Amino acid sequence: MTHTDAATEGNEAAALLEHTRSLVDPHLRAAVASLPGSIRRVAMYHFGWQHADGSPAAGGAGKAIRPALVLAATRALGGDPRDAVRAAVAVELAHNFTLLHDDVIDEDRTRRHRATAWAVFGIPDAVIAGDAMLALAQRLLAEDARAVSPRASARLSTCVIELCAGQQADCAFEERGPDEVSLDECLAMATAKTGALLGCACALGALYAGVDEQAVGAMDGFGREAGLAFQLIDDLIGIWGDPAQTGKPVGADLAAHKKSLPVVAALTSGTPAAAELATLYRGAMNTAGEVSRAADAVDRAGGRDWAQVCAADRMARAVHHLSRAVPDLSAAGDLLALAEFVTRRAH
Amino acid sequence: MTHTDAATEGNEAAALLEHTRSLVDPHLRAAVASLPGSIRRVAMYHFGWQHADGSPAAGGAGKAIRPALVLAATRALGGDPRDAVRAAVAVELAHNFTLLHDDVIDEDRTRRHRATAWAVFGIPDAVIAGDAMLALAQRLLAEDARAVSPRASARLSTCVIELCAGQQADCAFEERGPDEVSLDECLAMATAKTGALLGCACALGALYAGVDEQAVGAMDGFGREAGLAFQLIDDLIGIWGDPAQTGKPVGADLAAHKKSLPVVAALTSGTPAAAELATLYRGAMNTAGEVSRAADAVDRAGGRDWAQVCAADRMARAVHHLSRAVPDLSAAGDLLALAEFVTRRAH
């Protein structure tokens, strides 16, 4: 693919995300507006629609990748995306439920260039807002009169349980030593924590297109593998990303001793750089120099290359799943554009 | 009612609760067993089925009042309680989701005579286990092939949002001064925090009996009012209850400066005892003597009597709602026995 093709595809994905937001945002805002006032306040801050004092803010509510996948999946399978808007909103709410709780659990104070909800409103309000957001997601699906809505609801609930398992594993890994987490465990964690919801988004889109369970499962597989590719790239950004883009300090994941995929790949590489990285991970790593040396060690231990190759491999698997559900891939242009977009953010 | 009648009715309710547990527990255990291992461990501890080290424990999973209400509501309306077992399990899971999160939020270290889940496993694991339990409740309803299940799911989700609002209000009240919470606000909070789920339990039971929306709404009203009566009694127990029965230290709610219903009724009574209580509430109240004087002030300010009269009034309203759904109240003996049971626990 030439540079121009890539740029065009990036623009295509950007246009898709923009179009998704125009379809989904009014419904997302209406759903959030239905929450009780004290909870709505936290939710509107979290989505970037209000400042902490309740005054209106221009900020957007994230990239809307998951709702875009829902709608694109419905379209790719011959359905009408308008039928799936409610499901797209539900998936976005479920995603934001995880963000609210993960920020509490991980004690992250910054997200999308702003203070996290718990840092502004306290842990109780952030936990409660997350709970209400999950219940709201479920209510939207339950109130949908379409016959597939119970299946969508069951899939979303199963997915949330998997997200919980992923988050739990992520926390548990932080407690272990630098050489006590295997790459397989780490891949399983990332699949649960990130792949599951992207898979669920695609599966729900497929459900609302009215296809059979096999095609729904294939679409889940597509989203899941694309999600893992996304996570690998996100992990690379967490180490080498531009703070102006990420809204987080440089090397934030390393400073937090996060056992992200490139880090674990490096730690388990058996190279001299792996030992060096393990030593850094056993220490406090609270200077910029140490964080920079850790990033360098991940690179020299092959963690950076491995993550890039693995991301490409997962994308290939994703496309293979997709081709089972959509034999003529030309109908799945939007899905492919979105998948390529999320896995090319780092470049 | 003579003392003998009361004892008989208490036994009747105890037998109902026992029977409910025998119907519901196997399904509750199977549902919990379906959770991923790391989350299941926390859930099994929380339910009292395992010790912290994972060894089996004989402890029971609470009184099963909410599942008993689901099944009794179905029966009272001519349905087969076996159809509603799944809904009963879902309601019990939703209830335990709130317990797990409320204990984190309120920093309560003891429940059912044991250390709370977060005190044993840490805040992240307890928050995650609560999240997964809520999703599991929703999954059970979504996977139920009966035609009413989406309506049940929508009602449970709406109820969870109301529970969240109630818990949020409860926390917010703690931040305010002793004379800055009105009795109306406090009653609204208790309705949301406790009434909503008991109402939802009865409404779900009605749904699974296949009655119309009006009867479902009346059953919701019954459970909601009975729930408020229950909360009033629970608040009295929180002040004057026997620690051996409650598993909490004597006057625990006063020592925690909780603005429970009898306390707010006392604080807003305009009596000399109200001023005395307000002064105690503005202080640390960390000695047994101060806690005892606060309890005495609530009593002299009329908070204790008010709560008892209000509980009786709410029970009368509950029965009025019930009679709209079940004109021949003799068919609703189980529901009435349960309602009387929960509001007589203090005696």
UniProtKB/TrEMBL annotation, chains A, B:
Metal-binding listed as a keyword: yes
Record GO biological process: isoprenoid biosynthetic process
A Pfam short name: polyprenyl_synt
Keyword field contains Kinase: no
Gene3D superfamilies membership: Farnesyl Diphosphate Synthase (1.10.600.10)
Key words, A-Z: Magnesium, Metal-binding, Transferase
Gene Ontology terms for molecular function: metal ion binding; prenyltransferase activity
CDD domains reported in the protein's UniProt record: Trans_IPPS_HT
Family statement drawn from the similarity comment of this UniProt entry: Belongs to the FPP/GGPP synthase family.
Protein name: Family 2 encapsulin nanocompartment cargo protein polyprenyl transferase
Originating organism: Streptomyces brevispora
